[in-house]
Amino acid sequence: MPFHIVLLVLFAASLHAGWNALLRAGEDRLWSMTVMCLAVAITSTIAALFLAPPASASWSYAALSAVLHVGYNLFLVRSYRSGDLGQTYPIARGCSPILVTIGASLFAGEKVGAVAMLGIALVSGGIIFLAFKGRKLQVPSLPYALGTGCFIAAYSVADGIGVRLSGAPMAYTAWMSALWGILMPAVYVGLRGTRSLFSVRPGFGTAFAGGLVSLLAYGIVIYAMSGAPMGAVSALRETSVLFAALIGYLFLGESLSIPRLLACAAIATGTVMIG
Fold it and tell me: Which of 102, 161, 176, 234 could be joined to 97 by an S-S link, Cβ 3.0–4.6 Å?
């Protein structure tokens, strides 16, 4: 994988951890996530107007990804209801690189070398180990965290295929994100009503900014998947748990033990092997 792609994806990972920390720290996470999607919708729609549309063969994948993103949003919000960032986030992110690798092999004909495969396994294993407390995996929101990981893998493979068919990574990202950003507020209105979404409350600016950060982070990932193996890109992106663990320790009062540091070392080693 080209070195500049590695650096870009690692940068995206740090951005991803940042907006997840903002979401976890919020009081009404469904509202915060929906405001983030409003920011994504507005920004992506404006950008799409200045870009030539992607190839027609990619549109079905963009639509599928948008729907999967909504499912991911709902599961992520639910998983944070009773789980720490330092536990829920690693589980959700840790299972996705292996699933992406399998999906890319089945649906896109990708093959991953032995060293990169070992690196992906190290990253995934280290990430999942971060979720343990002692010898036990005590996560009340475990089914939702695992479900979140499945959604991540599904939309990653859809976007990996879609962006390659599009012939225009930026345009594909803009249109897919616009669809996703519009769908999520529609779902929120169906659940809580229009007045709840647009009520003035603290945290609107922070959530809106988080949406812009999330758009940039995933836009980088889609660009990377246009020319690099999906599983490897996914594994590199999930090193965001390192940043999440640090953020949770410094700002959210979560623990960072020696076993967790060793898991971080395994993730870092896997990252080097992939790169």
Answer: 234
